[in-house]
Specification:
Among the domains are: about 10-210, Rossmann fold, CATH 3.40.50; about 335-480, 2-Layer Sandwich (Transcription Regulator spoIIAA). The chain is about 35% helix and about 15% strand. It has 19 helices and 21 strands. It has helices spanning about 40, 45-55, 100-110, 130-135, 150-165, 170-180, 255-260, 270-280, 300-310, 325-330, 345-350, 360-370, 390-415, 445-455, 470-480, 485-495, 500-505, 510-515, 535-550; strands spanning about 10-15, 25, 30-35, 60-65, 90, 125-130, 145, 180-185, 190, 200-205, 210, 240, 245, 265, 285-290, 310-315, 335-345, 375-385, 420-425, 465, 530. The strands form seven sheets. A six-stranded mixed β-sheet has the order 4-3-5-6-7-8. A four-stranded parallel β-sheet has the order 17-18-19-20, with helices on one face. Strands 12-15-16 form a three-stranded parallel β-sheet. It is globular and about 70 Å long.
């Protein structure tokens, strides 16, 4: 039974039907948990969309919880209730590095970490989000049910099953058989070879062999925008509006570009309505999507924003799509720093990764942005990409020097010279991409490549190089590519308060290189093979082979194509 309630928020009563142990005014109680800090988690649009959707259901009451800023059990924002007070704990997981926080939240709430150790008295623990689409296996032992896909179609069926089932066991069986996208890890058994390679993940009984991702074919009737705005979030008082899902460009390192295929855009009238609604909440509106600059009629949205007096910002813009309207909107929004992501320095490497932008387009975009009055520029690059040579790394330095020249020329015309920031990240081979088989560069080689960039740009004025931790990147690679055996290390890492170096050292017979520095053959069973995200594995293999030959692929046409299989899913 629940132990805490806000005095004037909910009344406690006992349900006589369904799996519900604790009933809040006759409703199923769900706490939606973002396993990170409050200020970071609140702007996440997927989280807010699920929160709104659940609370729109008559039979559900949904509250929010986040990782506490200080050690101790998390409580819900709305009623200060503990996680164990709810019927269902629903985790929204965007990043693999939050797996550790998930375990910490469960442990601090007094809930058994392993799904196999929970009983009727415990909340049902479910999880969704893009990290679960890609590879749920490292946390499979901790989750009762994953929801693989988009919430608009998944959640209504899930809630119907919850309300009609008599107990936990019956519910899990019903979810596995009646809700597409519901993945019950307990119904699958993993088998390994004597060398430690995964041989199979087989269903027990009549559980489906493949879990098919659920997606919303059209977005005309599904507006997604901020439900709550707070100055304490990473985006401040900005109302966020999702304009699209997926990306047509097919960058071979990007999992989001494949698991959300085919790309879908919201129609102009719906987005115009969202902007009008957003203008009532804030004078700042952020357009969110994997490639906002691909949105048809984006210029008309910019015009609308100017007419009603709101400032627009964009989550992602490609250098080859910076129209005068977009640059003008950025300038009018008083953006101080614009971002371009070449990702690689040489034309050869950009062909390998299928980036689809040229050096001339990067330089042209630089000049246009600075000329419009945006003083600062940030460039994103990766080191350790497949087939990368030292010459390719040196090309990053050369490209940055050329960008600096264009930057300087335009800055002088403005009478002010801003700053260029070069952000360097280690390439992580991600599941569900054409690079899912490749080995990640070893730490010494990554450091050598970073050193080349730092030394090459050291004496260039107003240029700053920053790099994310390569050690953290190695942990992320392990968590994104791991199998169910990763659960033991996650538990150890929680006990070690997040000290992964100590955790890896303590683990008997564990080899980090086995998971992240090993080239995997095409015929190896991958831990995520049972998750069907729509794109066929043989298509990813073909894209990998094209990458090795330095051949480009055209953008996804979004309909009427049978190449990757997503439109047949």
């Amino acid at each position: 039974m629940g132990r805490r309630r806000a005095e004037n928020h909910h009344q406690h009563a006992r349900s006589e039907i369904g799996i519900i142990r604790k009933n809040w005014m006759g409703k199923t109680s769900i706490v939606l948990v973002f396993p990170n800090y409050y200020a970071v988690g609140l702007p996440n649009l997927g989280f807010q969309a699920v929160y709104r959707l659940l609370n729109s259901m008559e039979s559900v009451v949904c509250e929010r919880a986040f990782l506490p800023e200080f050690p101790g059990p998390a409580t819900s924002v709305e009623s200060n209730s503990s996680l164990e007070d709810f019927d269902i704990i629903a985790f929204s997981i965007s990043f693999e590095n939050d797996f550790l926080n998930l375990l910490t939240l469960l442990k601090d709430a007094g809930i058994p970490l392993l799904s196999s150790q929970r009983h009727e008295v415990h909340p049902l623990v479910i999880a969704g989000g893009v990290a679960c689409f890609i590879n749920p296996e490292p946390i499979a032992h901790f989750i009762d049910c994953f929801l693989i896909g988009e919430a608009e179609r998944l959640l209504p069926r899930f809630v119907n099953c919850v309300e009609s089932s008599s107990n936990r066991s019956a519910l899990l069986i019903e979810l596995a058989h009646k809700v597409p996208g519901a993945y019950i890890p307990a119904f699958y058994k993993d088998h390994y070879s004597s060398e430690g390679v995964l041989e199979s993940l087989t269903p027990v009984g009549s559980a489906p062999r493949k879990i098919t991702r659920v997606h919303v074919p059209q977005l005309e009737d599904t507006p997604t925008q901020s439900v709550i705005i707070t100055p304490h979030s990473a985006f401040g008082n900005t109302c966020l509006i999702e304009v699209s899902r997926g990306c047509s460009h097919g960058c071979r390192f990007c999992s989001a570009g494949f698991v959300y295929r085919p790309p879908r855009f919201r129609p102009l009238p719906l987005l115009q309505e969202c902007i009008r609604n957003g203008a009532e909440m804030s004078t700042k509106i952020g357009l969110v999507g994997a490639a906002v600059s691909d949105l048809p009629d984006l210029g008309r949205l910019c015009d609308q924003a100017r007419e009603i007096g709101v400032q627009l910002s964009f989550s992602s813009l490609r250098a080859d799509a910076l129209t005068p309207e977009l640059v003008s909107s950025l300038a009018q929004s008083r953006v101080k720093t614009a971002t371009i992501a070449p990702d690689a320095g040489s034309e050869r490497m950009r062909r390998v990764i299928n980036k689809g932008i040229t050096e001339s387009q990067i330089l042209k975009a630089t000049s246009a942005l600075v000329a419009s009055g945006i003083p600062n520029l940030k460039l994103y690059f990766m080191v350790g990409l497949p087939t990368e040579t030292i010459e390719d790394v040196e090309a990053i330095v050369t490209l940055c020097q050329k960008v600096k020249s264009a930057f300087l020329e335009s800055s002088r015309a403005q009478g002010h010279i801003g700053e260029m920031t070069i952000s360097v990240n280690a390439f992580i081979p991600k599941p569900a991409t054409p690079f899912q088989w490749v080995a990640m560069d070893a730490m010494p080689l990554l450091k050598k490549k970073l050193g080349i960039i730092i030394r090459g740009l050291k004496h260039v004025p107003n240029v700053r190089v920053e790099a994310n931790s390569f050690k953290e990147a190695a942990v992320q690679a392990f968590l994104s590519r791991g199998d169910r055996r990763a659960s033991d290390l996650l538990v150890r890492a929680v006990d070690n308060k997040g000290n992964w170096r100590k955790t890896f050292k303590e683990a008997p017979k564990f080899s980090l290189s086995f998971y992240i520095h090993r080239q995997r053959p095409f015929d190896e069973v991958l831990p995520w093979d049972h998750i069907d995200n729509g794109v066929q594995k043989n298509y990813l293999e073909k894209e990998y082979l094209k990458a090795m030959e330095g051949k480009m692929s055209p953008p996804c046409p979004m309909s009427g194509c049978r190449l990757c299989g997503a439109c047949d899913a």
